[in-house]
Design a protein that fits this description.
By secondary structure, the protein is an alpha/beta fold. It has two domains: 94 residues, no CATH class; 144 residues, Rossmann fold. 25% of the residues lie in helices and 21% in strands. The protein has eight helices and 15 strands. α6 links the parallel β8 and β9. The longest helix is centred in the C-terminal third of the chain and has 19 residues. It is flat, with a radius of gyration of 25 Å. 28% of the residues are buried. About 9% of the residues have low confidence.
């Protein structure tokens, strides 16, 4: 007791103060448990398992108990499922997560081969990343950064398969960046408002992805998208460079003149099997298929 009271007599202890913010963690360990199984995510390491029948009974009995926080340099914190994507998916082997659809690795490799120098996967998690360097929408110390729209994209060569609702923001970023190249996987949707801007940012002929049953998958389980043929997915090579885009547009116009003697005029057609994807500067833009 005496030693505890003497602590208060030392001015160094009294002036030390207490930090207003906690020290940033050196490691983040994400865990999640369901009545089916468990999942763990630490940096690039993933682990998962399913409960046995006996363990399921125990889990059901303990379901309403809460884990305590440890009074040490380790602390436990509840994270909502939408921010705990990786372990949350790992422990639910039959769950389909809409935000986690991605190109199957063997398909993504073909797309990345087209780009050649792509260095960062801009919309990914530790489960579905296609490159060693990636940006995560959830807390992840292994990611290059989080919250992709809060970081500059300048001088990056990007692979991006964003949620469809974010394509407008993505195109705005490409258009405003001083120097940026992007291999974008997105839909051929001529009726949406951002489609004309997508065509204007092109620097190469778009490639149509084959509507095969194994092209889109969930990263944590072997589940494939069952309506790929209705999506009309394409690979679009974009650039923020005005000179590169102008060179591509001039080449398109020249191709049209070589074919018919005058620039062809054609309205944008609805999504479908046609190789025509639209019109750029009065030049018809055709796509090429990406080999299966």
């Amino acid at each position: 007791m005496r030693s505890d009271l003497e602590w208060w007599l030392d001015n160094a202890n009294l002036l030390r103060g207490s930090p207003l913010q906690s020290h940033p963690p050196d490691l983040l360990l994400f865990t999640d448990v369901s009545k089916e199984g468990w999942g763990v995510h630490l940096l690039q390491h993933l682990a998962l398992g399913l409960w046995s029948n006996q363990e399921c009974k125990i889990i059901s009995m303990c379901w309403n108990f809460k884990l305590p926080s440890w009074h040490s340099s380790t602390s436990a914190q509840f994270i909502p499922g939408k921010w705990n994507i990786v372990p949350d998916n790992l422990n639910r082997t039959t769950q389909i997560v809409g935000s986690e659809w991605s190109l199957a690795p063997w398909r993504a490799n073909k797309v990345l081969t087209l780009a050649g120098s792509t260095t960062i996967d801009l919309f990914a998690t530790a489960l579905n990343r296609k490159l060693q360097i990636y940006c995560s929408p959830v807390p992840d110390l292994a990611a290059a950064f989080e919250d992709v729209f809060q970081h500059p994209w300048d001088s990056l060569d990007i692979y991006a398969f964003p949620p469809f609702c974010l394509i407008r923001q993505v195109l705005n970023q490409v258009r405003s960046a001083p120097s940026l190249a992007m291999m974008l996987v997105a839909l051929k949707w001529p009726h949406v408002e951002w489609y004309p801007d997508l065509l204007l940012l092109l620097v190469e002929t778009p490639r149509g992805l084959p509507p095969l049953s194994d092209i889109l998958c969930q990263p944590h389980v072997r589940i494939f998208h069952n309506a790929v043929s209705f999506l009309h997915l394409y690979v679009w090579r974009l650039s923020s460079s005005v000179s590169q885009r102008s060179t591509f547009h001039e080449r398109l116009q020249q191709q049209c003149q070589d074919t018919s003697g005058s620039p062809q005029r054609l309205s944008i057609r609805p999504s479908g099997p046609s190789s025509v994807v639209g019109v750029v500067r009065e030049a018809v833009l055709l796509s090429e298929p990406l080999s299966p």
